[in-house]
Design goal:
Blueprint (H helix, E strand, L loop, with lengths): L1 E5 L8 E8 L7 H9 L3 H8 L9 E5 L5 E8 L8 H14 L7 E5 L1 H4 L5 H16 L4 H4 L12 E5 L5 H26 L7 H14 L3 E5 L1 H7 L2 H7 L7 E7 L12 E5 L1 E5 L19 H16 L5 E10 L11 E3 L5 E3 L7 H14 L4 E6 L3 H7 L4 E6 L1 H14 L3 E3 L7 H4 L7 E2 L8 H10 L6 E5 L5 E2 L9 E2 L4 H9 L5
Parallel strand pairs: 1-6, 2-4, 2-5, 5-6, 9-11, 9-14, 10-11, 13-17, 14-18, 15-16
Antiparallel strand pairs: 3-4, 7-8, 8-11, 12-13, 15-18, 19-20
Helix pairs in contact: 3-5, 5-7, 7-11, 8-11, 10-12, 11-17, 12-16, 14-17
């Protein structure tokens, strides 16, 4: 898809569809009044009919009259006071998704209504609208279904309409948004692919291909090497599967190289390609969704590729432990004592608390490779979804200044996180083992969401943030701005965090 910025008035732009965001009750004056006049009064007629009422992100397709575009698409953006970066992305995605199944090759979006309200102005809107349209074009039904015709259109051209603005500057920002959107869609496709399609070995092959394409250093550690290194927790999870585990490592920049903020940043993602729960087997209801338990790994792999596209050579380490958690004659059993890479003995009290085990060894290994700051991303607990739903991710971390850096990256990315406390007193429950230094699942699981983070904290010694995306990683039902399936949650935040260390 080509992205083009034009300084023309919206009514003069030639396109198949012109998308017009409407914030609050439409004020039919100025440029909007002219659009209404040239459309033959369509906007006023729809308002009087009551069609411009409804939930945020509703999109109405109507006749364009004498406009340069063939159709007019009005997208409800809600209260203008509540407009933020996330909403801009979703308005644009909703516009693209509303066109599903239509023969559209050129979509124009008028930026002024959003730029006049968003605090960050036209520059941010150009990037975020482009990213939103790219992400809105995604439909997982196209992965396996041949001849699927209801997907959002594959655009030849996205036209950003910005009268009186510097088209060259906005074009560069729009290109950044396009790459960010494509990276999120890559993460979504990897996460959405089924477990019989993406095993740990296949995920490693995908990472290797991306590393070669974007000039990244890559290493894939198999079971023998992992055993030699002492990755006992990582290996313990995959023992029950015929598909052996892979520890995937990707790096941009030189080994140990620090960015302009003095960081050798590592992003670590949970990659359970299928999670049956192991011996502590899950209920059958919705077990089919457990192919999504690799989303963290898919996210950090895609983020590393996106950073390489936007700022080649940026110091960044990505570690993705990939396993299948299956019951079998060789599976780890509840009560087994396993030695972690950092030397701690872990009492496996629940084999379905497996994500924290593979993250523990991956985080330790990242530190051994020189990481000074670490962020892990995981579909870790159902508790975070029950607490925060599917629109807000949970976060833990220490120290506060690094947590603040991650949250600032999230704000730039248009993603929401809520910081939860690391309650030190609860750590005693995680040490209630007959034989080990720590249990992976507390027998008293009150505050289990906090305890999951406290377990991971046992394996980091550097500034660290844990992002639990179990609620936000995928939608169970379609929304105006996204289909069912993987959302790409936290991809943009990780990219923004890494790019914060690039010298201006």
């Amino acid at each position: 898809m080509q992205v083009r910025v034009v300084a023309d008035q919206p009514w003069d732009v030639k396109a198949d569809v012109l998308a017009v965001p409407l914030l609050g009750q439409p004020d039919l004056s100025g440029a909007l009044a002219e659009l209404d006049r040239r459309s033959g009064g369509e906007i006023r007629a729809l308002a009087e009919f009551g069609e411009l009422k409804g939930k945020r992100f509703k999109a109405i397709l109507t006749a364009a009259g004498e406009l340069g575009a063939g159709r007019l698409l009005l997208v409800l953006g809600g209260d203008p006071v509540a407009l933020d970066r996330e909403a801009v992305i979703r308005i644009a995605a909703s516009a693209e998704r509303r066109l599903g199944g239509r023969a559209v090759k050129r979509l124009a979006v008028w930026l002024a209504p959003l730029a006049e309200q968003l605090e960050d102005g036209i520059d941010a809107v150009a990037e975020l609208v482009t990213r939103g349209v790219v992400q809105g074009s995604y439909d997982p039904a196209t992965i396996y279904r041949e001849g699927y015709t209801d997907a959002p259109p594959a655009l030849d051209e996205l036209i950003l309409v910005a009268p009186g603005e510097d088209a060259s500057r906005l074009g560069r920002l729009a290109e950044r948004g396009r790459i960010m959107g494509e990276g999120a869609n890559l993460a979504r496709t990897l996460a959405n692919r089924s477990a019989n399609d993406v095993t740990p070995e296949v995920l490693a092959e995908e990472a290797w291909s991306l590393a070669e394409k974007h000039d990244l250093w890559v290493d894939v550690i198999g079971p023998d090497k992992a055993a030699e290194l002492g990755m006992g927790l990582f290996l313990s999870v995959g023992k029950g599967s015929d598909n052996p585990p892979r520890m995937i490592v990707m790096r941009s920049g030189r080994a140990g190289e620090r960015d302009s903020l003095g960081r050798h940043l590592a992003i670590v993602g949970k990659g359970v390609c299928f999670d049956s729960g192991g011996i502590s087997i899950k209920p059958s209801d919705r077990m089919d969704e457990m192919k999504m338990d690799k989303t963290g790994a898919c996210t950090v792999i895609a983020a590393a590729a996106t950073v390489a596209r936007l700022a080649p050579g940026t110091p960044l380490l990505a570690v993705a432990p990939a396993v299948e958690n299956m019951p079998g004659s060789h599976s780890t059993r509840p009560g087994d004592i396993v030695k972690a890479l950092n030397g701690k003995r872990v009492d496996i009290t629940n084999t379905d608390a497996e994500g924290r085990l593979i993250l523990a060894d991956a985080l330790t290994y990242a530190e051994q490779l020189g990481a000074t700051h670490l962020v892990d991303v995981a579909t870790l607990t159902g508790a975070v979804a029950r607490a925060l739903g599917d629109l807000m991710s949970g976060a833990f971390g220490t120290p506060d200044d690094f947590v603040g850096e991650v949250f600032a990256a999230g704000r730039r990315a248009g993603e929401r996180f809520w910081q939860l406390p690391l309650v030190d007193e609860y750590a005693e429950d995680m040490r209630d083992s007959w034989y080990g230094d720590v249990v992976n699942f507390s027998r008293n699981n009150d505050g289990g969401l906090v305890k999951s983070a406290l377990f991971i904290r046992e394996f980091v010694t550097k500034p660290w943030v844990h992002l639990d995306i179990a609620g936000t990683a995928y939608f169970r039902k379609a929304t105006p701005f996204a289909p069912r399936g993987a959302t790409g949650a936290s991809h943009a935040t990780l990219v923004e965090l890494a790019l914060a260390g690039v010298k201006a």
